[in-house]
Amino acid sequence: MPSFDVDAAAYGLRPSISEQIQLLTDLLAHAVEEQVGTDTYALAERIAGLCVRAGETGEPAHIADVAALLKEVPLAQMLGLLRAYTAFFRLVNQSERQEISRINRERSLSATREQPRKESIADAIAGFKRNGRSLQDVLGLIEQLDVQPTLTAHPTEARRRSVLFKQQELARQLTKLQRADITDYERQAALDEVYQQIALLLVTDEVRSERMTVLDEIEHALYFASTTIWETVPRIYDDIEAALKLYYADELKAAGGAVDVPAFLRYRSWVGGDRDGNPRVTADVTRSAMARYRENALILFGQELRMLRRELSVSKNQSDVPEPLFESIADDLDAVPLDAITRRRYQDEPYRLKLTIMMRRLTRMLSGEATAAELAYDSAAFVRDLELIRDTLRTGSTGRVAGSRKLKMITRQAKAFGFYMTAVDFRQHSRVHEAAVAELLRVGGVEADYANLSEAGRLRVLERELQNPRPLLPLGHTLSEQTAELLETFDVIREAIQRELPSVGSYIVSMTHDLSDLLEVLLIAKEKGLWTLGPEGVTSPLDVVPLFETIEDLERADEFMDELFQHEVYSRHLAARGRFQELMLGYSDSNKDGGYWTANWALHKAQGALGAVCRKHDVAFRLFHGRGGTTGRGGGRANQAILALPPACQNGKIRFTEQGEVISYRYAMPVIARRHLEQIVNALLRATDDPAPDIGADEEIHALMDRMSQRSMAAYRALIDDEQFWPWYTAVTPVRHIGNLRIASRPVSRKAGSDLTFDSLRAIPWVFSWTQTRYNVPGWYGAGEALDEALGTIAMSQLQTLYRDWPFFQAVVNNAKREMARARLGMSNRYAQFSEIE
User: Fold this and answer.
1) What is the spatial distance between Cα 229 and Cα 218, in angstroms, rounded to a whole number?
2) What confidence tens digit (pLDDT) does each residue in 364-406 have?
3) Strand 543-548 relative to strand 580-586: parallel, antiparallel, unpaired?
4) Taking the CB of residue 243, how many other CB atoms lie within 10 A of it?
5) Is 592 annotated in the active site?
6) Which of 185, 433, 444, 624 has its CA 20 to 30 Å from the CA of residue 151?
7) 703 vs 37: which has the higher pLDDT
8) Any bridge partners for residue 150, and if so which?
C-alpha cells in the first residue's frame, strides 16, 4: 500500500523503523488484496492519500473530502476497510515496539562501566558509588524497596487473546529478521510467517461475539503474568546483582562474595476482586478467579521444576551431598506417595529426587488428589525447599553448580508469585458497606436506623460493636441479596487466607469520606472471623485501605488519617498490622471532579501531607497510585512521576495500577517490560536516597499554585456545569455506545439502569470518550487559565525557573503539552456536528 508509506525524514523517524513499516505494509497490501479484494485495496489507498493530505494541511476541505468519500462506501466494503486499517495500525504499533527493543539493545551494547545505560539499575548504583555510598548503604536502600504493580481490568483494552498471540508471533519473527547473521533461508521462513500472521489478523474478529466476562479478563491478565512478567521479574534481580558486582566487587568479596537480593517486586491484581460498580464480580467469580490464579502458578512452577531437574544431575557418587538434603527427602517420602520405580531411578541423584517430590506435590494439588496434610505445603514451604537445595549445593562439593541460574530464577519467581500468581485486592464502594452494616445492626437488634445517624453517632455504635465479641447476625436469618453477597465475599477472603495468606492483598474502600467508612469494613470482617479484639489486642490478617478520589477528599486526606490514627479502636487494628498503612489515591475521579491542573495539584499536596502525617504517627506506609494510561487519568512515564513526588512520601515503597491498554503496551515484549521496571527501580532508589526538594512547599509558591488551581478548576467546572454541556457531550461523543461494546465486564455507570448522568458515569469511559473524539479535554483543559493566573503574579522568567527546577511542575506542563499536541480539533469538529447545540 504505497499510500501507507511512512517518510522517515518527514516524520522524524529513524530509517530502521521506516524500513520495517514499509516491509510490513507491503505484506499487508498483498494480504488485503487476497483477503478483502482488489477494489477495497484500491479504495484504501485512495482514502489513505486523502487522509495524509488532510493531516498535513489541516484544511477542513480536505477532511470534508475524506468524509464525502466514506459516505458513499457500502457497509460491506466499509467493514473491509476497517479490517485493513486496523491491521495497519496494529503493524505500526508493533514496529514501534520493535524499534524500542532495538534501541534498548543498542544502548545496552554501548554501555560501559563508566557510562551505564541511562535510567538503568546500573546507572543508579554507579551514581551511589560516585557519591561515596558504601555497599551497606546501597543494600540498605534495596532493603527499603517495595514495588507492587497492580493489574486491573478496564474498558479501554479491546484486544482479544487471539490477537495478542498473533502479535506475539509477529514480534518473534520480526526480531529474527533483525539478526545480522540471518541466512537467506531463515529470512524467507520468517517473512512467510509474518505474512501468515498478517493474513490471519485480517480474518480474525477484533471483538468477541459475546460480552467479555470477568473470567475472560482474568485470562487476559494471566496471559501477561505468565509470559512477559514471569520472565522479567527475575531479570530485574539479576540486574541488581550484576550492578553490585560491577561497582562494589571489592566490598562484596570482603563480605563473602554473594548477595541475596530481597524479593521487593511483586504483582497484584484487581481482576476478579474489584467489585466497585461491577455486579458481575460476585463471590463465586472471585473464588473461581483465585482458583485460576493458583492453578496457573502451580502449572508454571511444575514446568520450571522439570527444567531444573533436567539440569541438576548431581550424583552422590561424584559429589559430597550434605546430610540435610537426605533428611528432607526422608521426611518427604513419609508424606508424599512416590512409586518404587521413580525412587530407584533417582536413588543416586538426590537433587533430582527432591525435585521430583516437589513436582509430585504440585501435581496432586492440581488434580485435587492432595490430602489436607499435603495442601499445607504452601509457597513458603516451596521456597524453603528451593533454598535448601541452594544451601546444600553451596556447602557440598559442587563448585560452580551451586550458582545455578535456573535455581536462582525459580527461587525468585517463587518469592514473587507464590502459589497464587498475583495477590488479589478486594475493592468495594463505601455505600455498600454502609448498607450492609445498617442491615446487620437492624437484624441484630442494635440500631434500627444506622443510615440516618450522624457521623459521631455511627462511630459510637461501631466502636461499641467492634468491642463486643458476639455476632450480629441471628442464626438462620435471611439477608438482602447485596448484604449476603458482601458477607460471602468475606468468606472467600477467609478461605484464601487460610489456604495461602499472601494470596489476599488489601481491602480497598472506594469513596472514603468518613472514619466510619473504614470501621464498617472492620465490623463486617469481625462478623466473618477476620477481626477480633481480645485481651491481648486486635488480631486481623486484613489491611484496610482508604481510597481518596474527589478533590475535597484529597484536600482533607491528611486530617482524615490524623484523626484515624488517633482513634482508639483503629489504632489497635493498626498495631495488629505492624503499624503499617496503605493509602490509595484516585487519579481518574479527581480529574473528572476538578479538571487536569487542579487534580494534579491536589494529588501532589495530598501525597506530601499523607507522608508527613504517617511519619508524625510513626506509621510505616505505602502510597498506592490509581494511575490510568492516559494523561487525564494520571498516565505518563512512571519513573518521572516517582521523581516528582514530595520528599515526605519518598520511602522506597510504591504501588500503582497498570490499566487497560497500558498492560498490552508495557508487557507485550520482555525487553519493554524490563525497561519499564528498571526505570521504576532506578527512580525509587535515587528518590529514596536523595529526594528532590519540594519547591511547592515554599509558602509563596504554594499560594500561587493554589490560585492557579482555583482558576483552572473554575474554568473546568464552568464547562461541565453548563446546562447545555451534558446533552452536547452525549450527542457528540460515543459515551452511550461504549456500554454496548463487548470489550469489558464492567458497566460504564456506577448506577443501574439507563439513566446515564455525569455523576454516575465512571471516569474511565469519560476520558475514553474524549479521546475517541480527539478533544483530549481531561489532559489539558484549564491549564491555560492556570498559567495565565501565574503570569498575572510572577514574571515569565520565574515561571521558567519553576519549570526547570521543579520536577512536578515540569511533568504537569509537559503532559498537558503532549495532550494538546495529540488533540485533533479539526477532527473533533466533525464530531461536534452530531450535536444541534451551537
Assistant:
1) 15
2) 999 988 888 888 899 999 999 999 999 999 887 676 676 789 9
3) parallel
4) 21
5) yes
6) 433
7) 703
8) 268, 657
Residues in CB range of 97: below 8 A, 6 or more apart = 171, 665, 668, 669, 672
Is 799 in contact with 759 (CB distance < 8 Å)?
Answer: no
> Cell numbers 480529574 label which residue?
591
Q: Please, which residues have CB within 8 angstroms of residue 81's CB and are 6 or more apart in sequence?
A: 40, 43, 44, 47, 73
The answer to whether 751 is a known catalytic residue is no
Q: What are phi and psi of 760, to 5 degrees?
A: -85, -20
* Cβ atoms of residues 228 and 761 within 8 Å: no
Average per-residue pLDDT for the chain = 89
- CA–CA distance from 424 to each of 271, 523, 826 (Å)? 8, 21, 44
C-alpha cell at 504: 489476599
Instruction: Report phi then psi at 583, rounded to 5.
Output: -135, 125
Encoded amino acid at 65, one letter: D
Q: What DSSP character marks residue 446?
A: S
Task: Point out the catalytic residue in the list 592, 605, 625, 653.
Answer: 592
- Kindly report the backbone phi and psi dihedral angles of residue 259, in degrees, each rounded to the nearest multiple of 5, phi listed first: -140, 130
The fraction of the chain above a pLDDT of 70, given in percent, is 92
- Tell whether the model's pLDDT for residue 142 goes beyond 90: yes
Each residue's pLDDT tens digit, 686-742: 999 999 888 988 999 999 999 999 999 999 999 999 999 999 999 999 888 876 665
User: Is the distance from CB of 379 to CB of 500 less than 8 angstroms?
Assistant: yes
Nearest to 87 by CA among 149, 148, 36, 156: 36
Q: For 234-279, how does the pLDDT look when each residue is reduced to its tens digit (9 = 90+)?
A: 999 999 999 999 999 999 888 777 788 999 999 999 999 999 988 9
Collapsed DSSP state (helix, strand, coil) of residue 510: strand
**What confidence score (pLDDT) does residue 726 get?**
93
- Which amino acid belongs to residue 19? E
List, as own/partner pairs, every contact residues 117-120 make where C-beta atoms lie below 8 angstroms and the sequence separation is at least 24, other chains included: 119/639, 119/678, 119/679, 119/682, 119/683, 120/239, 120/678, 120/679, 120/682
How far apart CA 466 and CA 532 sit, in angstroms, is 8
> Rounded distance, CA 566 to CA 248, Å?
45
The Cα 514–Cα 557 span in angstroms is 10
Residue 744 near residue 153 (C-beta atoms within 8 A): yes
Buried/exposed 536-550: b ≥16 CB within 10 Å, e otherwise: eebebebbbbbbbbb
Contact, 18 vs 8, CB < 8 A? yes
User: What is the per-residue burial (b if ≥16 Cβ within 10 Å, else e) of 177-194?
Assistant: eeeeeeeeeeeeebeebb
**175 pLDDT more than 90:** no
Eight-class DSSP state of 433:
H
With contact defined as beta carbons under 8 Å apart, do 372 and 384 qualify?
A: no
Annotate 204-244 with three-state secondary structure: CCCCCCCCCCHHHHHHHHHHHHHHHHHHHHHHHHHHHHHHH
In order, the DSSP letters of 143-205 are HH-EEEEEEE--TT----HHHHHHHHHHHHHHHHHT-TT--HHHHHHHHHHHHHHHHHHHTS-
Residue with cell 495461602: 500
Contact 437, 520 (CB under 8 A): yes
Q: Which of these is catalytic: 62, 129, 154, 415?
A: 154
> 77: which 3 cell numbers?
466494503
CA distances to 374, 419, 744 from 367, in Å: 12, 15, 31
pLDDT per residue as tens digits for the range 776-832: 999 999 999 999 999 998 989 999 999 999 999 999 999 999 999 999 888 888 888
SS3 581: strand
Contacts of residue 31, defined as CB under 8 A and 6 or more positions apart, other chains included, come to 87, 195, 198, 199, 202
Q: What angle do the packed helices 15-35 and 75-110 form, to 10 degrees?
A: 150
Q: What is the pLDDT of residue 2?
A: 42
